[in-house]
Structures are given as structure tokens and as C-alpha cells.
Specification:
Layout: E1 8-18, E2 24-38, E3 41-49, H1 55-66, E4 79-86, H2 88-99, H3 102-106, H4 111-125, H5 130-138, H6 142-146, H7 153-165, H8 167-178, E5 188-197, E6 220-227, E7 233-240, H9 245-259, E8 265-268, H10 276-283, E9 289-294, H11 297-304, E10 320-323, E11 332-337, H12 339-368, H13 375-386, E12 395-399, E13 404-408, H14 410-417, E14 422-427, H15 436-444, H16 446-459, H17 471-494, H18 519-527, H19 539-546, E15 550-556, E16 562-566, H20 571-580
Parallel strand pairs: 5-8, 8-9
Antiparallel strand pairs: 1-2, 2-3, 4-15, 5-6, 6-7, 9-14, 10-11, 11-14, 12-13, 15-16
Length: about 600
């Protein structure tokens, strides 16, 4: 007798149908099912649909599952695993994509849509360049289930071009979901800019500029991400590598107003992006576009000078105060002081000054010993080290042919120290719509966009570096990463109970104070296992665990047909699909 597979059986379900002519037709569905118990209830999980197999094949499978002996030809095993493919990670990503309506959002059903969806799923489940993904598709159930395992390089590029041509339509759909007044009553959107470097020199978008990745010697692109207040990606725009923040903001504001048809919005961006010139442009948009940003250091100094409206005494008993200034007519200014931030900036400045002085000390010693002489030679040597930590502004350097002295500019250091921990939010949104604490929170929510950039660039989706040469391919690549980030955002939210994600971040009564994790998140981090002893995982670690859920092609002795059967899922794998709200699918295409 064969050992009976645990709780697997063939279910024969009979149904009937009477047609318009009054003829009664009877049908029998044959399903391979697994039975398991959850919360005291018996549940059934369909592993395969055997209806289309010949009746004798189904009878053989059923007999094997009962444990009956099966005749094996020439000593061959009764059951053979013909092939096993990783399934769980791509199945989970596809299930969430279907739940979000992502395939329908991409466009009408066609081979290009299947390839575009596969490129997005690949970015989530197995980030990397697109050409190796062609081989990876065939090594998972993603390739055969979507019918793309034989796709060529040209097919992939054609799908990218198809997707990029539909970018405006896709983003309009996302804007209706997440920025429309019905779902976004505050009418608020977040925008920020980042950069990534290019490999190669022939892309028209590749330019030299300020690298946010600290990658020197490479041309780069800039890309701006628009999100809703919670950080869901809605739109992305790619710019040349030397594009300034304000120019990018001007374009995205135009997209929101004219492309998405949103005539009234509050745009939140950092102080380097929403400049005075950009604000003047927003004021011209029928007076219905508002902003939330922060003042720059020179503007804050001006408010503090000559008994201005911003004085340190404001923070004697509070760390947030609303002020007004004639220099900002029609705007509210919310001044904040974070003592912890002030302490950290003072510590960092002192450490950088000390490090700079340490670099200069050997030069001073060489000049005194006569081993380095001449004002030009001394100046060249000083110039190579004094700017390393960007502390030259705080030092007075005196050079002669025979001497080198370095002294700190104490007055300037004290002036900068007076601003430590102080920032000022500016917005025209009235207090009855958004109070002072709400304005601070809205500005600090730009951290959601920064988190999205981390996920897109390195943590999850590996956008950088970019290898494409054609402008439309670069734009298509960034769009794929943005849509993958949209999918990842929802997966991370759904899988919070299985990962180290804080499920219930505490609401901050005071938005100026540093954000804190909840007690449950601290417990997760310290125990690393839940109450049932199951380990918490990182998001990427959970996807790796889901990949161990395989789909096996089972061949029973004496039958020519292979039957696809899923491996027994672990409790974590089953819970991952429960959190998405879908049973574990046998195939990716419904």
C-alpha cells in the first residue's frame, strides 16, 4: 500500500443545467483538493482542476490518493515529480495586482500587457535588469502561466514602448483613485525629486548634475515622484540630469492641473523645490493651488534679526508657534524648534570642525618646520583638504610664504548655532482647513516620498543604475519601477503582521517631536517571533520564503498526463495570501 498523501482527495461535484429547449444537461467537475483545519473549522483548498483529464486518469489519481496499489511499468515509481517551479512569490504579487485592478489599469488585454505586467511583477519578486528576467520567467510559474516564457528581447522592448505610450492614461487612473476630492478630502499631494546614474554616455537625458547617490564621474537622470498624502505613488516624470528642483515642480504642477484635471490642490514639497518664483506661478492658477513648504536659512535669519517676529523666547514653553510677517503676505508661518535636532546638529558641526582641523594640523606643522613654503604651494595644499567636510565657511585661514594659521569664526558659528533645530513651515492654507500642527505634519509627510525612493532605488526594486540609451526606454524603465513601487506599497501594508513593519504607529500629539515606534513594533524587534513561535521577516525575506511554495508537475504511473499540484504551504505562506484576501491560486491567470 502506498502512503496516503495528507488530506488530499479528488472531489467530484455534479451540477445540472436546463437549456432553452428544455433539455437537461448534467456535468461533473473533478477537483484535486486539500483539506485542512483552521480556527476549528474544516476548509478545502483546490489544488488542481482535473475535469479535462480522461476519466481513467482521474480514477488512477484518486486510487493513488486513497493509497491503493498502482501498477508501475518496469519498476518505475508510482508517482514522479516531472518538474517543480517556484510559485508563491509571483502568485502573491499577481494576486495583489489583480486585487488592485493593475492589469486593467495598464490597458486592454494583449501580449504587450502580459509582458508589461510580468516586468512589473519581476521588479517586485526578483529585482534586476530586464534581459536576465527573460530566463528567470521560465524558471518560475510566471512564464508559463502568462504565456511569456518564449518572449524575446525585442518583445520586451516592444512591451516597454507600449507601456510608456500609455503612461498618461495609467497615471490619470491612479490620480482618480488617490487624488480626487472624494478619496483625498484635503486635496493634498506630495512631490520630491531624486536621481540615479546611467551606465553609458549616449542617452539624451544623461547629464552631469548634483548626484543624490553620491556617484561621482557618471551622467545621471532626475525623476520626480508624485504621491498621495500616505505615499502611494501616482505619477513619475523623468528629467535631464542637470534639471533643478523648481523646474521639475513646475512640470508636475502642470500635470496635476491640466493632465489630471484637478483644479484645486495643495502641493507639498521641500524648501529647495517650492521657491518664491514657483509660489508666484501657483498664485496665478486661479488662486486654487496652495502649497506647503519651508523657509530657507537666510529667510529664517531675516525673521530673527532686529527683533523680528521669530525670537528664541517663543520656544521657552512650547516648540511650535504661529507667526506672521509682511515679507510673506497671505501666508501662515509655523515656527518649530526641535531640541533633539538642535543637539544633533551642534554635535555634528563640532565633529566636522574637529575633523577639518585634524586634516590641517599636519600642514601647519610642515609650514612651521619649513618643509612647505610659498603662499601658492601652501594654498594648494590647504585647498585639497579644507573643503572635504564643507567647514571652510567657519574657518579663517591666513597664508603667507612662511606661515599658515587657522582660526574658527566664532561669531559665524554662533549665528548658525542659533538656527539649530529651528524650521519654519509656510502655507496659505487657512487655519480652519489645516491647523498649525496639521501643516507641520503635512510637510513632514514628505518622508513617505523619501521612503518610496529608498524602495525604488535600492531596498526593493533596484532601479539604479540605468542601462538604456533611448530616451523612451529610460522613461519606460522608470515607469515600470514606479508601478512596481505602487504594488510594493500595498503588499507591505497587507503583510505588516508578518514583517517588522509597525502595524499601529502612534499618532503624534506634537508633530515637532521625533516619531516613535509603537510598543508592538518594539516587541517585534526584540522577540523576532510571534506568539506561535513563527519568525518575523523582512519584506524581501518574506518574498524569498513564499518562493519556496512550489508548483509540481506530478506524473502518476500508467498515465501520460501531468497533474499540477502545489506543495503544502507553511502557516506563514497561507497567512500571507489570507492577508491579501485571496486563496493560494494554482495558476496565475484566472
Amino acid at each position: 500500500m502506498l502512503e496516503q498523501p495528507t488530506a488530499m482527495h479528488v472531489a467530484r461535484i455534479k451540477s445540472s443545467h436546463t437549456d432553452k429547449q428544455g433539455q437537461r444537461r448534467e456535468y461533473e467537475s473533478r477537483l484535486l483538493r486539500r483539506t485542512y483545519r483552521e480556527d476549528g473549522k474544516v476548509k478545502h483548498e483546490t489544488l488542481a482542476n482535473l475535469t479535462k483529464l480522461p476519466a481513467h486518469v482521474v480514477d488512477t489519481v484518486e486510487a493513488a490518493l486513497r493509497g491503493d496499489a498502482i501498477a508501475a511499468a518496469q519498476g518505475a515509481p508510482a508517482v514522479t515529480i516531472a518538474r517543480s517551479l517556484p510559485h508563491g512569490h509571483v502568485a502573491a504579487a499577481c494576486a495583489m495586482a489583480s486585487k488592485l485592478g493593475l492589469p486593467r489599469l495598464l490597458g486592454p488585454a494583449c501580449p504587450q500587457r502580459d509582458l508589461a505586467l510580468a516586468l512589473i511583477i519581476s521588479r517586485v519578486a526578483h529585482p534586476g535588469s530586464k534581459l536576465p528576467a527573460l530566463a528567470w520567467w521560465a524558471d518560475t510559474t510566471l512564464g508559463p502561466d502568462l504565456g511569456i516564457e518564449a518572449a524575446t528581447t525585442d518583445d520586451v522592448y516592444a512591451a516597454m514602448d507600449w507601456l510608456q505610450a500609455r503612461q498618461d492614461t495609467i497615471e490619470k487612473g491612479l490620480a482618480r483613485r488617490h487624488l480626487a476630492p472624494a478619496v483625498n478630502p484635503q486635496r493634498m499631494a506630495l512631490f520630491d525629486l531624486s536621481s540615479s546614474w546611467l551606465e553609458g554616455t549616449h542617452c539624451p537625458l544623461g547629464e552631469r548634475g548634483y548626484s543624490r547617490d553620491g556617484k561621482k564621474g557618471k551622467v545621471q537622470i532626475e525623476y520626480g515622484l508624485l504621491t498621495d498624502p500616505e505615499g502611494r505613488p501616482v505619477a513619475v516624470r523623468v528629467f535631464g540630469g542637470s534639471t533643478a528642483d523648481p523646474a521639475a515642480f513646475t512640470e508636475i504642477a502642470e500635470v496635476v492641473r491640466n493632465g489630471f484635471g484637478l483644479r484645486k490642490m495643495v502641493m507639498a514639497g521641500d524648501r529647495g523645490m517650492i521657491t518664491t518664483a514657483r509660489i508666484d506661478a501657483l498664485r496665478e492658477l486661479d488662486g486654487k493651488y496652495a502649497w506647503i513648504t519651508a523657509l530657507r536659512s537666510p529667510q529664517i535669519r531675516k525673521l530673527m534679526a532686529d527683533d523680528g517676529p521669530l525670537q528664541l523666547s517663543l520656544f521657552d514653553e512650547q516648540d511650535l508657534a504661529e507667526i506672521t510677517s509682511d515679507d510673506f503676505p497671505g501666508e501662515r508661518l509655523v515656527a518649530c524648534r526641535n531640541p533633539a535636532l538642535a543637539e544633533e546638529r551642534a554635535r555634528k558641526r563640532e565633529a566636522l570642525l574637529a575633523a577639518t582641523e585634524k586634516l590641517l594640523a599636519p600642514l601647519i606643522a610642515r609650514v612651521r618646520a619649513g618643509r612647505l613654503a610659498g603662499a601658492a604651494a601652501i594654498g594648494t595644499a590647504v585647498g585639497k583638504v579644507i573643503g572635504k567636510y564643507k567647514m571652510a565657511k567657519h574657518l579663517d585661514v591666513t597664508i603667507t610664504d612662511t606661515s599658515l594659521t587657522v582660526e574658527r569664526r566664532q561669531d559665524q558659528i554662533a549665528g548658525e548655532a542659533a538656527l539649530d533645530g529651528i524650521y519654519v513651515i509656510r502655507t496659505p492654507v487657512p487655519a480652519e482647513t489645516l491647523d498649525a500642527a496639521g501643516a507641520v505634519t503635512a510637510y513632514k509627510n514628505l518622508k513617505h516620498v523619501e521612503r518610496d525612493f529608498r524602495h525604488i532605488k535600492s531596498d526593493d526594486l533596484d532601479l539604479r543604475p540605468v542601462f538604456h540609451r533611448l530616451e523612451k526606454r529610460v522613461r519606460g524603465h522608470v515607469l515600470i519601477c514606479m508601478l512596481a513601487a505602487y504594488l510594493t506599497w500595498h503588499l507591505r501594508q497587507a503583510w505588516a503582521p508578518l514583517t517588522y513593519t509597525d502595524e499601529e504607529p502612534p499618532v503624534q500629539a506634537n508633530p515637532v517631536t521625533p516619531a516613535r515606534r509603537s510598543a508592538s513594533a518594539d516587541t517585534k524587534a526584540s522577540r523576532q517571533h510571534d506568539q506561535d513561535g513563527r519568525p518575523y521577516r523582512s519584506f524581501r525575506g518574506l518574498l524569498a520564503h513564499l518562493a519556496t511554495l512550489t508548483r509540481n508537475q506530478v506524473l502518476f504511473a500508467g498515465t501520460p498526463a501531468e497533474v499540477p499540484v502545489l506543495t503544502e504551504p507553511t502557516p506563514e505562506q497561507r497567512q500571507a495570501f489570507d492577508l491579501i484576501g485571496t486563496p493560494i491560486p494554482l495558476t496565475l491567470r484566472k
